[in-house]
Amino acid sequence: MNHPRPDLAPATLAVHAGRPGHRQGGPVNPPIPLNSTYVSQGEVPPGELAYARADTDAWHAFEDALAALEGAAERGIVFSSGMAAIAAVLALVPSGGILVLPCHAYQTTGAYAADLADRHGVTVRRVDIADTDAVVAALDGADLLLIESPTNPMLEVADLPALIAAARERGVRTAVDNTFATPLGQRPLALGADLVVHSVTKYLAGHSDLVLGAVLTSDAGLAERVRGHRTLHGAIAGPFETWLALRGLRTLPLRFERACANAAELARRLAEHPGVAEVRHPSLPGDPGHERASAQMDLPGAIVGVRTVTDPGTGPAATADAVVARCRLWVPATSLGGVESLIERRRRWGTESATVPEDLLRLSVGIEDVEDLWADLDRALRPDTLGV
Ligand SMILES: *Cc1c(COP(=O)(O)O)cnc(C)c1O
Fold it and tell me: Of 249, 280, 309, which one is at a domain's C-terminal end?
């Protein structure tokens, strides 16, 4: 396996990390090994493959490549979904323990935390992750702080260095869901976070064709616990999906840079649009997260939040729904991080937080030509062009 020097730039690591070593006649890409079991007898030394629920070489190239990008000292731990990865991280909170979670965390993460509260007596303290004082005040006696930044779907930006430092001082473990920012936007482990978690489904794989998750850490003990959780619960990744995710990861820097540039340009134009009441994107100088994002992120991310100017005849939800229905290029669908641009009114889900405005449209900006994306959005946002 190729382990390029960790000081190489992310664009180089994304292309080279996890490739087979250079051998005359050897393959350039790793194979897709299909094995449930490995030849094995007697005592199994650590690291030796024996049964594919516990470990398989089908995961290693992807796990090594993602670890290189996040700057993790330990091999990554791939899971069958982002939620499986989050469940493994939340399992670090003991029964009766305390978990600190953003109000606007990914909705299924919130639902999972509520389930832990019900079944395991975990106290869940929901905080405004952008309000550093409030988060720090909630850390007393906590077992885990799970940060999302920017948050889904409100795009609040946390003061990552301050929160991670405050948690460390108080002996509270920190995990960062880095799905939105990707390792190209921020690398929380370098700031002292204990764990990074990803929905690989989104930017890392990048083509809306698979569901996977991953956990990264530089702490050998934590890696062993998270890997042990995966073996016990069995939420393991298939060899083909993992191979596809690695193939997607190879172009992450190109895709993400283009998507971020498109998002920033669309956000700038949307802010002037007569059909738009509010735009959220960390690239906008007036955005609540702008200063922090400029200070701590290398790229502003490619999710844009848009609220529509309400049609008094129908109300906010119907106005926003009508915009989605008028789009021809933007795909009406949930999820994010693929090459294609998606648009969704988040509150169409009854489970989305009630503090998310009813007319908030979440735009996952893809890598298409920005003028084509703009033309479609511009038209969809003008109700007078209905049927044009
Ligand atoms: C999608 C998502 C998840 C869940 O990941 P799945 O792969 O869908 O299980 C977790 N966190 C964030 C921020 C997400 O966007």
Answer: 249
Residue 284 sits in a domain whose CATH number is 3.90.1150.10
Whether 177 is catalytic: yes
For 208-271, give the DSSP string. Answer: SS---EEEE-S-HHHHHHHHHHHHHH--PPPHHHHHHHHHHHHTHHHHHHHHHHHHHHHHHHHT
The atom number, within ligand 1, closest to the CA of 84 reads 9
The best mutation among 78, 79, 80, 83 to test binding of ligand 1, ranked by most ligand atoms within 8 Å of the C-beta, falls on 83
Ligand 1 centroid, distance to 197 Cα (angstroms): 9
pLDDT in tens, 325-364: 999 999 999 999 999 999 999 999 998 889 999 999 999 9
Q: What is the pLDDT of residues 155-165, one digit of tens each?
A: 999 999 999 99
Active site residue 202: yes
**Among the three residues 249, 270, 286, which one is the final residue of a domain in this structure?**
249
Looking at the fold, whether 142 and 217 belong to one and the same domain comes out as yes
Find the 312 Cα to ligand 1 centroid distance in Å: 34
Task: Report the nearest atom of ligand 1 relative to the CA of 335.
Answer: 1
